[in-house]
Design goal:
The chain has eleven helices and no strands. By secondary structure, the chain is mostly helical.
Amino acid sequence: MSPRRRRQLFRVAGYVLFAAAIAAVAAAADWGRLSDAFLRLDVAESMFPEAITVALRNTIVYTLLAFVFGLTLGLVLALMRLSSILPYRWFATAYIELFRGLPALLVLFMVGYGVPLAFPDREIPGGVYGSVAVGLGLTAAAYMAETIRAGIQAVPRGQLEAARTLGMSHSRAMISIVLPQAFRIVIPPLTNEIILLTKDTSLVYVLGVTSTTIELTKFAGDTLNTRVNPTPLVVAGLLYLVITLPLSQLVRGLERRAGRER
């Protein structure tokens, strides 16, 4: 038997075994009980339209606010990491190592309750929305900073040197020449960060959200407690996929485009 024929047979055998395993699991499952527990249409219908107009909308708003805050802070930290001024590099390195090691839940808790205690006469603008943007953004900024720094370092050094030769200042060359190329490189991993932030919004409950600031996971949990049925968790999972699956497709498309350009 030729090697090519052998590979084809192994491939077909792999497909058959995989299909048999799926069929065995499907046959062994009690679909009636699963349907009663997780697929109650009456329970799912009771979640709408609030699941869309309030919970899903707030989840998207929290994600975007945290991403904008984290991206802005991450860019500053990345430039500080690459700075020739030692205190800037030390601060950026300490920040990144600290917030990459802390759970997002703990950071949210400290922002929501620690900041008001430390500054009793001041509050974060925007209420819960502002606290979520800062809390999730502080953690996201640590990861984004390293991503942006890698993107800047991936731009050939000759680009900056050529700009300086033409009379540009270092700052102008970074803004006009280096950063646009760096962001084109890091768009796929930054899009992945949006997906992670979307899932991290499930931690917002620690701030004590109200009926107008509730997000998907908390909304599903409250409905579960009211109807005593886990169907709301399935609905919430599907609504998360409404956000994350298009973003995943976008990441793959951007990666293919970047590969063709390279």
